[in-house]
Amino acid sequence: MTTQAQQFDTTTIDIGNPVALEAMPFLPPSFGVTAPTTLPQPRPKKQRNYNPNKARDERKRELEYLRNEVEELGFKLEHLQAIKADRALRGDETLGSQLASGLPLLENPGPNHFVWEQTCARQLNCRLRSERENIHLKLLLKKQIQVAKSMEKLLNKRTKLTAAETSGSNNKRTIRVHVSLEDNVVEDVIVYEELNMGVEVSYQEVETMFASNELLPVTAPMRNVQMLDGENSMSLKIYDNKVMPFSMHATGEAWRCPWNHFSPNRCGFRIENTDDSIVEQFGMEMSDTKTKTAAKFFVQQRLRRYVEKDRIVIVWQSHIEPLEFSNKKLAGIRYREKGYVIIKPHNVSEASDDEAYTLVQTCYVITPDLPNQRLSDNNKTGALTEFVLSATVDNISTSTDMIENLLVDQELQQRSCI
Predict the structure, then answer these.
(1) One digit per residue, pLDDT tens: the chain, 418 residues?
(2) Where is this region: Disordered (predicted)?
(3) Disulfide engineering: 270 pairs with which of 71, 100, 231, 280, CB 3.0-4.6 Å?
(4) CA distances in angstroms from 81 to 46, 73, 100, 132, 282, listed in the order given
(5) What is the distance, to the nearest Å, from the Cα of residue 175 to the centroid of all Cα atoms in its chain?
């Protein structure tokens, strides 16, 4: 037994030989050989390309916005309650739109109260619309910042607000742009001579242009559009009346702002530029964000202001040449524009002798000049003419609002300095 055990102990077994393994009579468990085992590797976690807490984050941001809104409204309520209590002590309980607009209240509203009421109502609506738009833009800005941070890693581009999100209630706009044209000195001289003569004629006929509207009431803003068929073309006349609760001279000075709003050398040049006379040429672009339509023009115009004792007269004539409409070149089409503005004092009622009111009467006359009959029958010409007329009507409202805002700001600044 000892010999067999010793022989067994000294026996070498080739584990790699299957015959030797089969020939072994018995192997104890402790003698067994086990192959090395490998542990399973953990799978890498897949990165999510979305935010699983998006709904919760949005509710959190909305809750934060509502808390800020509650604080702001609470502050406004306390302010209005304090003002109301103060006015109650003085025996005056009147709180109207004039309080919200920041203008002095009228103690005894009379027949002329409607003028300030209309101005204050429009200013209040503008303020509320601006506040709503400001809140909307703040929320939109937060979302855009989040989008920008995520997109920056992939595209390295910055996001921006679309035109539909940033535009206000007005879909149309008119701006001055650079245009490149071949110089034609002879033709330009003829055009400017025609404009100079036309301005003098317009000044002589300014009374005739407004004669048809003299019998119409002017106590409320009024706009009248007339289509006139001429011998060779059709003209559009736009009349606009508005009473402003400001002096004649202040209103007349404010009417210079739309003309001096642009730098003389930015998008064109001015041949003449004085306090009462402007001769200039420039490029102009009209666009409509709602219909996604745009047109470019080359404009040559002459403007003249006449300051008289009891009124201020502004007349101008323009030679408008369309260059491009809906990204297509145009040629052979012209438009002639004549403008008339009369600014004069206006008595709203007998009780308004101590207060200054001004009547502003505006008239635009636009006439297409189509030397070629084919252009007259072209659908594109009709669409362009309709687009120009629509933009002109909208431009009247824009200019009037700009002047009114300027006068209101000046009045508030003067009263704040007292």
Answers:
(1) 444 444 444 445 454 555 444 455 544 544 444 545 556 667 777 676 777 888 888 888 888 888 888 887 887 787 778 777 776 776 554 444 444 445 454 455 555 666 777 777 788 778 878 888 888 888 888 777 776 666 565 554 333 333 333 334 467 778 888 877 776 667 788 888 999 999 999 999 998 888 766 545 555 667 777 877 766 667 888 888 888 888 898 888 888 776 665 545 455 677 778 878 888 888 888 888 888 888 899 999 999 999 998 999 999 999 999 888 888 888 778 889 999 999 999 876 655 556 788 899 999 998 888 766 555 556 777 788 888 888 888 888 788 888 888 888 888 877 776 6
(2) 32-59
(3) 280
(4) 58, 12, 13, 23, 53
(5) 12
